[in-house]
Amino acid sequence: xxxxxxxxxxxxxxxxxxxxxxxxxxxxxxxxxxxxxxxxxxxxxxxxxxxxxxxxxxxxxxxxxxxxxxxxxxxxxxxxxxxxxxxxxxxxxxxxxxxxxxxxxxxxxxxxxxxxxxxxxxxxxxxxxxxxxxxxxxxxxxxxxxxxxxxxxxxxxxxxxx
Length: 162
Known about the structure:
The chain has two helices and ten strands; from the N terminus they run βββαβββββββα. It is mostly beta strands and 162 residues long.
């Protein structure tokens, strides 16, 4: 995970998509990174895993309990058993949380990349693809306009679901 730079967000909260599992980090976040290794790709179902390290004593689980999967002899990965959201990477050197699981993920900027041997060859070309907003697709505009989200909001709630 490394310790290049600390993320500048004190007292950050987050959780899974359905709201069954929530957390709060009291104090400073650690180093933010992305990992391209194949294990992280599979664990996140994505091109890479965006992670930020936290000190064990600063992480508090405020709702629910994450389920753990031992992905190797050294690592466990935490996720929500209800909706499947990836939440943690837990190794002997510490714990890291999924950046996208935070309520304000845009404030956590990765400072280093790991596992470049697994980087997908087209990743650097993604920014050159045509880009559109969700509502710009005329074939799905009615679908988007009538969509009702059951996703937990990006802030703590006393109870969930409402």
